[in-house]
Specification:
This protein is an alpha+beta fold. The protein has 4 helices and 4 strands, in the order ααββββαα. The longest helix has about 45 residues. The mean pLDDT is about 90.
Amino acid sequence: MLLKGYIKSLRKFRYLHRYAGLFIASLLFISAITGILLALKKDVDIIQAPTQKGQSKNMAEWKPLYELSALAEQALHQKHPEQVGNKVDRLDARPSKGVVKVLFDKGYWEVQIDAQSGVVKSISRRHSDWIEAIHDGSIISHIFKLISMHILGIGVLFIILSGLWLWLGPKRIKAIKRKRRKKID
């Protein structure tokens, strides 16, 4: 009876392992590719523009953030008129570089501006942001991100545990069969 239970269990786990593995593998494939790209974001300028350097690291000498934000917004709208109406999402102040990165709501735009002089250092798209949104699933929605990351984590654990059982199960069956043969002999 124990032997039949092991055999049924292995058949069921083989089926589940195969199809869950295909689904989890597709999520892991996307996560791996985007993870590799994100690991390269500081080394590949196309993925994310390098952080520029400003004149002063002393924040007391910096222009107010609202002024830097307005200058960055104006610079983006001048260079890319189709971006008029694209509002500032957040500011990323880099005291060690003397620069503020101004990030916009739409299109993954970034304007780097010298925090002391207000001179625009660069205007570029942050491809790393949309790559990260694909990586964690937030490109679809926050709910999808939460659900998919839980499914991925639980799925990987299931694949590991079912894989261990698929490896260990046949060994247990062989051991039971050996014991039965010894009893018969």
